[in-house]
Amino acid sequence: MTFDQARLHEIEARCTQESPPGCQGVCPFQLDVRAFLAAMTEGRLVPARRILDRALPLPGIMAAVCDHPCEGVCPRKGLGGSVAVNKLEQACLAATSPTRIPPQPRKKFSLAVMGAGLAGLVAAADLARKGYSITLFHNGEPASLLCSRFPVLADSGALRADMEALVALEVAFAEARLDAPLISRCVQTFDALLLDADAASEPAPPPDDVDAATLLWHDTVCCAGWPSLNAAGRVIPEASRQAGEGRRAAQTLERIVGKVSLTAERDKKPGVLHVPLEGVSPVPRLEAEAEGYTPDEAAREAGRCIQCQCLICVKECVFLQKHKGYPRTYARQAYNNASIVQGFHTANTLINGCALCGQCERLCPERFSMADLCRSAREDMVERNYMPPSAHEFALEDMESACGPECALVLNDIGLDKGGKPSWLFFPGCQLTASRGEQTLELYEHLRSNLSGGVALTLSCCGIPAQWAGRRADFDRHAAELLRQWENFGRPTLIAACASCLKALRSALPEAGLVSAWEILTTLSLPPGRRHYDAFALSIHDPCAARFDAAWLKSVRALVRACGATPEEPRLTGETTPCCGYGGLVFCAAPDVAAEMSAARAADLPHTALASCIMCRDRLANQDKACLHLLDLLFPRPSMSDTQAAAARGPSFSTRRAGRAALRRRVLREYLGRQTLERPAERLTVPPQTLTRLEERHILLEDVESVVAQAERGGRYFENLQNGRRLASSRPRHVTFWVEYSRDGETVMVHDAWMHRMIVPGAGDAGTTPGGRHETGQTPRENMP
Amino acid sequence: MSMAPDYPPDSGQWVCGVCRRPLEQIKMQIFYLNSAFDVSLPSCPQCGLTMTPKSLAEGKMLEVEALLEDK
Ligand code: SF4
Ligand code: SF4
Ligand code: SF4
Ligand SMILES: [Zn+2]
């Protein structure tokens, strides 16, 4: 497994979306303020009350006396004023009756609390709720100290109710002198003791004498709740701190009697929750008309809570939104997916849906990388053989074809002597050549005539699809081949026109000098045939693979300006640019997600878009977004106006393949005078709707052709007597293709095509005895209908 | 995972191109990733040439393929 539990925790911890918001973090009782306010906003007072009663040991007292540190850290502070959390707690308590909390089973330990200050009462309440037998020693009336510290409590119903709740929890109140002899007695009689430093100030140690983390003083004795003193020596209560110490000490007492480590797994500080505030407009704090909020006022004030959360990355990524979680949950899902022994890998779709574009990592304040997570998960899937075969096969076969004999080519600069070493090697990449063969050659010629030392040409794929598919071994093999070619050429500087190629080549040929075509072009005289605009605004769409390639980003803009156009920066641009949906092979494994990515990007570009990667350009155009490629400015196609060029859809998968092969033939012909035979094609007529369907199903015209050719050769097809249509299949690799067609003399009209991966005996090339056995022999039977 | 057993052609009156015999629903096993399913498909009773109707390929089969791939 690529990642174990420890690695998961490390990855998970990077995403702090689950960390508590500031208000909860500073609350001594970690009150889920966010949930409380959400319930209040919706007027769900009873659930709101339940949240208070569960979290606060003495809800009425705390709501009355707390100095509400939550409000001090609320990001609303600068946007109309902190949410009035404390007043809302009071409003909720006033409008509801206490929640019935079922008592916990009694525990066998007896604990003593010396002193009825706030800390002592909080500890008593906490421990009594948990089922411990509590004896509370107090001096004078049980509530007298509290009332003198917090005069608001005198005669208050809240005080009475909370004290009665303690009685109901069977806390035994015992009047006593709170002195050192009582401490000794308690240590002997009880399992552990808490000393309230405000109530029992005389025997209590100074704060520095106790352990800061556990509040342990000595043996089984904790001490908590020191009051603050002002300059004049007057006691100033600090309810939240004192109450918090009461809780902390109560937790230590529990650990003492439970004989577990006093410190282990305690006070783990969760990472900071990042709260983006863009788009939050100020709303002033609502002051109550009378004393205390009415339920309606409370709902409105609570509604000012922005429900602090991060989701910075999720907001900008269609894929992250799609799966309804956030990176932390996704990390866990990916981990579970890898750990599954029996059952379903439910996160395969998740893992294969990421464009590996790196936007989230760039946006995340903690630098969480979904790309790293999904890439290593894919590598694991491939290594341990549970990658769904359908996920990337189509793209990998496309890569194979681009590197294969029909499309790939290595050509030295024809101006060099035989065996001469070129200074440069142009690597246009398999997609630019597929989509824009002509302009690729113009660019090549421009480089040749402007650079000295000779420019060789390699038509091939950079191998990135293999990396995206998690096939590291395939990538390495391909890299080795590219390395060999580069060495053969005498290690020329590589010029690439695709950002993904640059990335892949950088890892395949770490020693090679590498530069983008755009950067080189800024150093040369500009192509004479380029466009000359007069302030034509273009929304720049940067390729995600170039987000950290400052030279690329800069050169693109410079070239746009050189043609007289004005580069306009969209909201997300440069380092923060999103993926067009091609990255990570999402277009193959999750075409719907990929299409949504393109659509979302298209919607974010106000002007005609300008892409410097051909896949971006074609995908945006396929979303009906007017989009030009940089080459359309530098080497415009004479047959097309800008409007036409920007509107033209990208070529189909079949056309791309054919485009690569055509470019190779043209290069051979024009540079080496070599004629090559074009593969004779069946004369197919495919109506446009059928073409679209083929494209969606990833069925290539060459697959259709070979089905028809094979069927017609052997007569192995079905015939529909009603309309004369034929239906035939073939299984060239792991997929059976079906084509329904009709013949009219030499022309073949394709009506429909479909495919499946299942092996059907008697279909495609699989065995043809009726009910015959599968080509690979006996297979366990899944079920009987 | 189960597949309903009988899948006739989606429409039309089909014969085998070689044998010219009308197709019959023939019971057989189809396979994917170490699983096999019993189904009846339109087949030539003479030579065994078998048809996968489009509705099956793009419906149940696709579903089952996806399930098996995640197993
Ligand atoms: S940006 Fe995303 S990954 Fe980073 S902390 Fe926020 S939710 Fe988590
Ligand atoms: S806005 Fe709401 S969730 Fe955020 S700190 Fe303020 S009260 Fe808490
Ligand atoms: S698609 Fe890009 S932004 Fe979205 S999760 Fe993957 S790497 Fe991050
Ligand atoms: Zn037959």
Rg of chain B (CA only): 13 Å
How many distinct beta strands of chain A? 23
Evaluate the radius of gyration of chain A: 36 Å
Name the hetero compounds present. Answer: iron/sulfur cluster, zinc ion
Largest sheet entry of chain B? 2 strands, antiparallel
Q: Helix share of residues of chain A?
A: 40-55%
Structural class of the helix and strand makeup of chain B? alpha+beta
Mean pLDDT of chain B comes to: 91
Number of helical runs of chain B? Answer: 2
**Sheet/helix structural class of chain A:** alpha/beta
Total helix count of chain A? Answer: 35
How far apart are the termini of chain B? 11 Å
Q: Which consecutive residue ranges of chain B, at least 5 long each, have pLDDT under 50?
A: none
Multimeric state: heterodimer
- Provide mean pLDDT of chain A, rounded: 92
Total number of strands of chain B: 3
Largest sheet of chain A: 6 strands, mixed
**Low-pLDDT ranges of chain A:** 767-785
